[in-house]
Write a structure and sequence with these properties.
single chain; two-stranded antiparallel sheet; 7 strands; nucleic acid binding; Znf_CCHC; zinc; CCHC-type domain-containing protein
Length: 151
Amino acid sequence: MECLKYQNVSAVKRISIREDGQYAPTKHFILSFNVPNLPQSFLIAYINCPVRPYVPEPLRCYKCEKFGHSVQSCRGHASNTCEAAPLCVNCKGDHPSYARSSPRWKDEKEIQAVKLNQNCRRQNSKSWSILCLSTQTPLYMYIWTEEIFCQ
């Protein structure tokens, strides 16, 4: 981490995925920069590594399956105890609430991209389409791939 500070990297986090109940590290890292413009690349161990923006997954509650809040602030009921007919609670479609084919999931993902590209924040969790410019100091997050090290 120390060797990346001169390139304006403020934090590094490795992305992990869950396989068979265990977390496995991937070859991807999330870098946080303390500058507003995305660098095209950065140097590590004399290797020029390309950089691309990281768009996080939409925030979804694992209790009620709705977007915009987490389990800790949920006032809904648990989805596994629901006796209603199965449907997406976000768009009322005939698919699971976590389906990436859901129009609402696509909208939420687009909001995440706009938030990243326009330095916006969600103003109100109930009106998910309202975005306004943030006056706070932004945190810029980008992702790079460790392909060169994984041979």
